[in-house]
């Protein structure tokens, strides 16, 4: 019953704000969900620092409900103007909900951070502090945890609902593609394929990892900036760039890279024309990054794993040179054998010849190559500065890092081409690159369990022994946990960082009496 009420309440609030934005700003419907969601993240981020998260989410959605009632009774025509685009948006949410409902988290990174931080915020109605020992990666930005909190707080806790909420935000970024007005039928079909691509190519919707969200958020901001000339359109539209950039920087540390790429385009577009737009964008990026860095420094006194800092670069470069040389060779091999980038470049070269060396395509080709190279240089230094020797040897998570820039560039290329050209070759090549990415490229790597069996084992033990949170637990697995995923899953389920793992034949000796609980899963 609570979940049904939450759906109706949040849907009404969403429609209320959608009508308000459409009425006041005459913005394209495709951009509205992304505008609303990033603004919501922005408000919750501020509320989190003021310890007003719960009050803020309630008040914001009550105002949305009031707006919905107002438009329903006084101006239904505005509500009607949200459709048919919103039909596709809601149908997509329905399909995602059907696919995800009832699932449990199975991925390593959900256990180690993303699901853990979201659950903590929902329980505390506040951001984590140094006293919250269950959060290991304290320096990771929390935009998606804020968004999940803002929606999930109205529902009964269910892991699959968190997945659905996360997917809705991903969808809002992809949905910006529908803002294209040329050849509406084909663009609707292309938008559907873009949505499928967005949920398949990198991170699947059944986990909370943010790499795909990084790509779709970056793309959504770029498409918004590319579509509108903020000097000619409604003058207030440019202020939406503030919550958009804050959200991108707060999605993940590498969001700063994508923000800078978009900022360069904004400077190119508005230099000597409208400095206010540049200042808003630059200020939003700089202040949000500074704010988060200061929060981490003041609250936790260290930067943490995978964060970008000069000191960490120096410490990384000072490690084993043979290891770094081997890593460098493998890294460069993967860069030069990047089939998706070669496919993207090939498509642009074909169009370049077909369009008789159109300056737009030359500029687009030059831009994506430069962005890719700069991103990979940053990626390289991130690896050697923050990864362990074992992670360096196997280029841990390289696949999803490179697919992040793949998706960002692919979406931008397809959007820019279809915005400017309406010929069949452009449409065909757009379809081909998406089909190539979905059906020809190898499936993205996933680090996690294949099924729920181990999760059910842990939860059965937790319920049977009525184990409270933050207890010291010794768990005996069937074999040594080399990947650490069994230990991480145990830490997540038992909500404790004091989990010690052992196995039959373990040379280390443990005294059961030193622990609050002993769980034997070795049989």
UniProtKB/TrEMBL annotation:
Keyword Transferase: no
UniProt keyword annotations, A-Z: Membrane, Transmembrane, Transmembrane helix
Transmembrane portions of the chain: 30-47, 54-73, 85-102, 161-180, 208-228, 240-267, 335-354, 360-381, 401-418, 424-441
Domain of life: Bacteria
PROSITE patterns, per the entry: PROKAR_LIPOPROTEIN
Protein name: Conserved domain protein
Organism of this sequence: Anaerococcus hydrogenalis ACS-025-V-Sch4
């Amino acid at each position: 019953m609570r979940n049904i009420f939450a759906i109706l309440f949040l849907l009404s609030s969403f429609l209320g704000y959608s009508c308000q934005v459409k009425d006041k700003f005459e913005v394209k419907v495709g951009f509205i969900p992304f505008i609303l969601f990033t603004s919501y993240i922005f408000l919750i981020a501020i509320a989190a620092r003021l310890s007003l998260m719960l009050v803020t989410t309630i008040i914001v959605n009550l105002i949305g409900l009031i707006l919905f009632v107002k438009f329903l009774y006084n101006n239904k025509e505005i509500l009607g103007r949200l459709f048919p685009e919103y039909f596709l948006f809601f149908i997509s949410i329905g399909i995602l909900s059907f696919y995800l409902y009832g699932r449990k988290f199975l991925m390593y990174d959900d256990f180690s951070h993303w699901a853990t931080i979201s659950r903590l915020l929902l329980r505390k109605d506040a951001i984590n502090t140094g006293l919250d020992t269950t959060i290991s990666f304290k320096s990771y930005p929390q935009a998606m945890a804020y968004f999940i909190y803002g929606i999930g707080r109205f529902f009964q806790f269910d892991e699959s609902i968190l997945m659905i909420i996360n997917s809705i935000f991903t969808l809002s970024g992809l949905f910006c593609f529908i803002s294209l007005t040329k050849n509406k039928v084909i663009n609707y079909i292309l938008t559907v394929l873009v949505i499928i691509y967005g949920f398949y190519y990198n991170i699947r919707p059944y986990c909370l990892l943010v790499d795909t969200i990084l790509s779709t958020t970056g793309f959504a901001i770029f498409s918004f900036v590319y579509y509108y000339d903020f000097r000619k359109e409604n003058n207030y539209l440019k202020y939406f760039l503030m919550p958009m950039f804050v959200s991108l920087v707060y999605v993940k540390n590498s969001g700063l890279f994508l923000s800078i790429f978009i900022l360069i385009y904004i400077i190119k577009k508005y230099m000597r024309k409208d400095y206010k737009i540049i200042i808003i964008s630059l200020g939003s990026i700089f202040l949000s990054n500074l704010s988060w860095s200061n929060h981490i420094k003041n609250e936790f006194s260290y930067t943490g794993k995978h964060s970008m800092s000069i000191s960490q670069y120096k410490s990384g470069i000072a490690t084993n040179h043979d290891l770094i040389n081997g890593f460098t060779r493998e890294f460069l091999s993967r860069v030069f054998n990047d089939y998706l980038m070669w496919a993207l470049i090939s498509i642009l070269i074909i169009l370049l010849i077909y369009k008789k060396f159109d300056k737009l395509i030359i500029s687009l080709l030059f831009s994506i190559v430069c962005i890719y190279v700069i991103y990979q240089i940053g990626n390289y230094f991130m690896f050697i500065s923050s990864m362990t020797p074992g992670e360096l040897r196997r280029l841990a998570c390289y696949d999803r890092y490179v697919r992040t820039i793949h998706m960002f560039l692919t979406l931008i290329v397809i959007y820019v081409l279809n915005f400017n050209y309406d010929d069949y070759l452009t449409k065909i090549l757009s379809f081909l690159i998406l089909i190539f990415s979905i059906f020809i490229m190898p499936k993205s790597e996933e680090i996690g369990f294949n099924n729920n069996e181990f999760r059910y084992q842990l939860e059965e033990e937790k319920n049977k022994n009525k184990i409270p949170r933050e207890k010291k637990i010794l768990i005996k697995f069937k074999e040594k946990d080399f990947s650490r995923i069994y230990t991480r899953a145990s830490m997540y389920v038992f909500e404790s960082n004091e989990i010690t793992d052992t196995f039959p034949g373990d040379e280390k000796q443990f005294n059961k009496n030193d622990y609050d609980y002993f769980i034997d899963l070795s049989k």
